[in-house]
Automatic annotation (TrEMBL):
Biased composition range(s): Basic and acidic residues: 271-281
Co-factor requirement: [4Fe-4S] cluster
UniProt entry keywords in alphabetical sequence: Iron, Iron-sulfur, Metal-binding, S-adenosyl-L-methionine, TPR repeat
Gene3D superfamilies tied to this protein: Cobalamin-binding domain, Tetratricopeptide repeat domain, tm_1862 like domain
SUPFAM superfamilies: Cobalamin (vitamin B12)-binding domain (SSF52242), Radical SAM enzymes (SSF102114), TPR-like (SSF48452)
Protein name: Radical SAM domain iron-sulfur cluster-binding oxidoreductase with cobalamin-binding domain and TPR domains
Annotated InterPro entries: BchE-like (IPR051198), Cobalamin-bd (IPR006158), Cobalamin-bd_sf (IPR036724), Elp3/MiaA/NifB-like_rSAM (IPR006638), Methyltransferase_Class_B (IPR034466), rSAM (IPR007197), rSAM_horseshoe (IPR023404), rSAM_sf (IPR058240)
Domain of life: Bacteria
Length: 864
């Protein structure tokens, strides 16, 4: 009787082997919905038995219902606390929900229960990679491989971690091992292509991408997903329109208690933009000395902020909103050098304030860890703080303003730049530490604002500003743009930069471009005399005589361009330069004169090869115009760069094929493929908001850096990009042939740059004696950038197997100026020499570029 009772109790508390076997059989057949139905029945009949909850969680997870699976696994974990599979699955779900700390905890618990679980080690490595802890992630992936050498995912993930750490050759080996284990591993082929591209092995990269595409679905499916909808916005936090968030809610955490890691003086030296010429405080003293009743000069701090609060070893920063790194970043974010560079607008405003006698300090905090910023701001008092904001660093701007308000509650905080200009009232409503917004062109507005502050008048009603008045915000009248740009103080009187602007504004109406928001559509020019003086001042302080002319369209007035080139030649300003322009503003004679005046490279906004797309985005050009200008520029040996935009509104396989055909026909020396981005104030952004019901609140309620068609669809974009590159047949662009370079020299025999470029063509063709002769001729004609000459000599010597001679040329170049190219080549050659002694015989491949821009930045420079 007792035995029967015990049997009955057993049957009542757990499912029979037959019942569990049925569920498992359905799972093995991939019939997850039916298995889930049976498992749900088991949880209802046996709620205190873990099997049903575990299987129901697994089926729910396999059906893609991650959020629903989590409580099921948590219930199972309570009933089966020693089951490592359950804890591992919980970790996976938290990882996919981007709750990384919880994910790490459960994966580590699973490994505590089963220390040699290769899958769990691999999962933990992925979590740590997403947390940016790449060294720990590497160790996890290696442990996974140790436990299962044939786990292709672990080799792939190890490759990704090593690539992020900059160990490219090791990453290559990992990706190749992953594809050897799993020959259809499309992601591994794609990543192998990426790392080969990064290593400069472009042809091999293309071959790897072709293998990736061969194992994927048709690329047009990825394109279809990218164009409908234009933006993946389902996870974006939207309204209410302007939540009443006061400054305290957005305060950066752990500020007051943070001990300064470095002295304010050392941080000032590290991040302050050096100034030259007259010191503002000295001028201020002179001004004050002339008039005892004059208002005192103001202490002004102008700041280019980071993208967000950057964590460091001595100060952790919570991810996500309000001010931390994006929760979905998944490791280091690739940032262009251009974005790291302090803006010309900030330097120009600083110059006006310095000229007026104010004490001005400018800081580039783009790369600064938040711990450094806290210490610097806490110890740097001022009357006025000005902060520059783009879309990408808007949250860094908000964090910085809140920090300033915390430490300097009585200071005036003003912000400007493209982001604040397009959304001035919203910026004030969301970032309540800010007092005023400078809208549009800032010099005259900022100086009038300073006059109000210095004379203790309220900073309200000033044209070109928005302001806070208690809980209300208001927008002032539009300020007319500066009519005579020559009246502005040149920032080259005070600061060094290789970026110059000779005009402001662009008459074009491109649907994607946000530049007219600041400068307007009417072009205003600095005079030729002003520009020549600006060039001379800039070059006097630069280690490399190269300038980038950053006008929207340098050749908009072609007669002015001719006059400018004549003035450069007439004043014997011996430097190389580049510029951006449009193909509807460039005739043959203009290109010829530009080349004689030192122009080495032109960047052309092409965007698309499809007439339909060009019309839709209001580009105002045709593919035929692009080809005409390209041919003319290449006749004079210029480097031609195409800016191409992909996934435009209405993009189809046919329109992309038209872009492919145009690039192959034009054969530019380089080109960019950039996905469509949505910038406030542009037609494309307005269309997006109208189509998808978005408002500007998304910029203040979410942690994304920028919004583009790529958002949440990176794999699809990568697939389309790989197809484009493979169809074009080159990643880096098209080189000049020896014959083409020889023809250029016939056109321009007395221009030294064309002889350097001919030498480079000879070098690449293996005609080393001719290469040396061409370099000698360039030196005789006075080529201005010595490191380019020395680097070419080093490459020629290495090609002749004159290793010591090659190293000597590179040492001389590094002593002159250790730019990124010559220092990189020196380090590479020195390491190669060391490796030869250990028996390695791989060839040493040096960068043989003759592009001036590749020799501008110091090798140890973290930000220009």
């Amino acid at each position: 009787m007792n035995r029967k009772l015990r049997r009955a109790n057993l049957k009542a508390s757990e499912p029979t082997p037959h019942e569990t076997g049925n569920v498992i059989n359905y799972m093995r057949q991939g019939r997850y919905a039916e298995a889930a139905h049976l498992a749900k029945g088991l949880t209802e009949r046996f709620p205190d038995h873990g099997f049903g909850w575990k299987i129901l969680g697994i089926c729910t997870l396999l059906l893609g219902q991650n959020g629903d699976a989590l409580p099921l696994f948590l219930k199972a974990a309570g009933l089966l606390p020693d089951d490592p599979d359950i804890h591992c699955n919980i970790g996976i779900i938290y990882y996919e929900l981007n709750q990384l700390n919880e994910a790490e905890y459960y994966c580590r618990y699973a490994l505590k229960l089963r220390p040699n679980d290769a899958i769990a080690h691999n999962n933990l490595g992925n979590i740590l990679s997403s947390l940016g802890r790449l060294d720990e992630a590497e160790a996890c992936f290696r442990r996974a491989i140790e436990n299962n050498p044939d786990l292709a995912q672990a080799h792939y993930n190890l490759g990704s971690a090593l690539q992020a750490l900059g160990r490219l050759e090791e990453a290559e080996s990992c990706y190749r091992r992953a594809t050897a284990i799993r020959p259809t591993y499309e992601e591994a082929y794609a990543s192998l292509g990426n790392v080969l591209k990064e290593m400069g092995r472009l042809d091999e990269a293309l071959e790897s991408w072709k293998l990736s595409l061969a194992h994927q679905e048709d690329w047009t499916n990825a394109l279809r997903r990218l164009t409908n909808p234009l933006l993946m916005d389902g996870d974006l936090t939207r309204g209410p329109e302007y939540p009443a968030a006061d400054a305290a809610e957005g305060q950066p955490r752990q500020l007051s208690s943070h001990p300064a890691a470095a002295s304010v003086e050392s941080l000032d030296r590290k991040y302050r933009v050096p100034s030259h010429g007259h010191d503002g405080s000295a001028e201020a003293g002179a001004v004050a000395g002339r008039d005892e009743n004059a208002p005192r000069p103001l202490r002004i701090v102008l700041v280019y902020p980071p993208l967000w609060q950057i964590p460091s070893a001595d100060l952790a920063v919570p991810e996500g909103m309000p001010f931390g790194p994006p929760a979905t970043a998944g490791g280091p974010v690739a940032i262009s050098r251009e974005l790291k560079t302090i803006t010309q607008g900030v330097l120009s405003i600083a110059a006006q304030a310095k000229k007026a006698g104010h004490d001005v300090r400018v800081y580039n905090l783009f790369n600064a860890p938040w711990a450094d910023i806290v210490a610097l701001i806490a110890g740097t008092g001022a009357d006025v703080y000005g902060v520059s904001a783009y879309n990408s660093n808007r949250r860094g701007m908000g964090a910085l303003c809140a920090l300033i308000r915390q430490y300097h509650p009585h200071a005036h905080i003003t912000v400007g730049g493209p982001f604040a200009t397009t959304l001035p009232l919203e910026t004030l409503r969301y970032y309540r530490a800010i007092d005023t917004v400078v809208v549009g062109e800032g010099e005259e507005t900022f100086m009038e604002l300073l006059d109000h502050i210095r004379s203790h008048r309220p900073a309200v009603g000033i044209p070109g500003t928005a302001w806070r008045n208690g809980d209300e915000v208001a927008l002032g009248p539009v300020r007319p743009r500066i009519g005579d740009l020559d009246t502005l103080a040149s920032h080259f009187d005070y600061y060094s930069s290789n970026i110059v602007m000779t005009s402001r504004g662009c008459p074009s109406k491109c649907s994607f471009c946000g530049n007219p928001v600041l400068w307007g559509r009417k072009i205003r020019f600095y005079s030729t005399d002003y520009c020549i003086d600006m060039f001379r001042k800039a070059l006097a302080r630069l280690p490399v005589p190269y300038l980038m002319i950053a006008d929207d369209t340098f050749t908009a007035n072609q007669q002015r361009t001719l006059n400018m080139c004549d003035a450069i030649i007439g004043n014997k300003l011996d430097f190389l330069w580049s510029c951006s322009t449009r193909v509807d503003a460039m005739e043959d004679k203009v290109l010829h004169r530009m080349r004689r005046a030192g122009c080495q490279e032109i960047m052309i906004g092409v965007e698309s090869g499809s007439p339909e797309i060009l019309e839709r985005i209001h580009k105002g050009i045709t593919p035929e115009m692009v080809l005409t200008v390209t041919r003319a520029a290449k006749k004079y040996g210029m480097l031609v760069h195409y800016y191409m935009m992909v996934i435009n509104r209405g993009e189809t396989p046919d329109t992309l094929q038209a872009s492919i055909d145009l690039i192959k026909a034009g054969r530019p020396n380089s080109y960019d493929l950039t996905p469509l981005m949505f910038l406030p104030g542009t037609e494309d952004y307005g269309h997006l908001c109208e189509q998808q019901g978005l408002t500007s609140d998304i910029f203040f309620r979410n942690d994304f850096m920028d919004i583009s068609v790529e958002r949440k669809r990176k794999k699809d974009l990568d697939t389309v990009m790989q197809h484009l590159y493979c169809s074009i047949g080159t990643i880096g662009g098209y080189e000049y042939t020896v014959a083409e370079r020889e023809a250029v020299v016939e056109h321009l025999p007395d221009v030294p740059t064309v002889h350097v470029e001919l030498a480079n063509a000879y070098l690449r063709a293996g005609q080393l004696d001719k290469a040396t002769a061409a370099l000698t001729r360039a030196e005789e004609l006075g080529f201005p950038i010595g490191n380019i000459i020395l680097n070419q000599h080093a490459c020629i010597a290495l090609a002749r197997n004159q290793i010591d001679t090659s190293l000597d040329f590179l040492e001389r170049a590094c002593r002159s100026f250790p730019d990124v190219t010559v220092k990189g080549n020196y380090d590479k050659l020195a390491a190669w020499i060391d490796s030869r002694t250990s028996g390695q015989v791989k060839p040493c491949l040096l960068c043989d570029s003759v592009r001036a821009q590749d020799f501008v930045f110091r090798a140890d420079e973290t930000a220009p």
